Amino acid sequence: MMKRDECLKALARHVREEAIVATYQAAFDWMRIALRDLNYLSIGAMGLASSHGLGLALGRPDRRVIVLDGDGSLLMNLGSLTTIAASAPANFVHLVFVNGVYEANGSHPLPGRDRLDFATVAHGSGIADTGTISTLEAFEAEIPWLLTGPGPIFRALKVVAGEPSPQDYAYIHGAETRARFRAAFAR
């Protein structure tokens, strides 16, 4: 199994002009690893990262949008998968970090976590390009496709927590942070 922060470090080595939509623990880890103006950080809207990312992808079809989601967050809004499939944005990538717990809320276990297969759910929702990745080597090999392949693309990444990241809510919710993202996304 991979550490989430190691996956994010591998992704950060390749990301350039892509917009990153990250939520909860993935957002805190991404901030530590790749603080940049094209980060859309979503805390306090559990389950909505995929919807926010979809809106951004539809609004800017010329820019790749990568959602860094958690399994607990996605479980709160599984209906977004059918909307993503129906909209079929070619620039949309949805990465779900699967650790079987609501990590942001005390690591309480997800219901059905031993049976739930997010890639199968995404495929059944109509997203054709889905899969599950369990090793860092496999994830690194997949990154070029994630950055260039036609979307929507969905990957469930089997992870454990990595190094703890600072939880800077003031930065995430800051008006200046949002303004920098809007300006960078509009360019």
Q: Any idea of the CATH topology?
A: Rossmann fold
Would you count the extended β strands for me?
A: 9
The biggest beta sheet is recorded as: 7 strands, parallel
Q: What's the Cα radius of gyration?
A: 15 Å
Query: In CATH, what is the homologous superfamily?
Result: Thiamin diphosphate (ThDP)-binding fold, Pyr/PP domains
Specify the number of helices.
9
**Fraction of residues in H or I helices:** 40-55%
Count of structural domains: 1
Low-confidence stretches: none
Instruction: Give the N-to-C terminal Cα separation.
Output: 38 Å
Structure description:
- This protein is of the alpha/beta class and 187 residues long.
- The protein has a single domain, classed as 3-Layer(aba) Sandwich (Rossmann fold).
- The chain has nine helices and nine strands.
- It has helices at residues 4-12, 24-33, 49-59, 71-75, 79-87, 118-124, 136-148, 169-173, 175-186; strands spanning 2-3, 19-23, 39-42, 65-70, 92-98, 101-102, 108-109, 129-133, 153-160.
- Strands 1, 2, 3, 4, 5, 8 and 9 form a seven-stranded parallel sheet that branches.
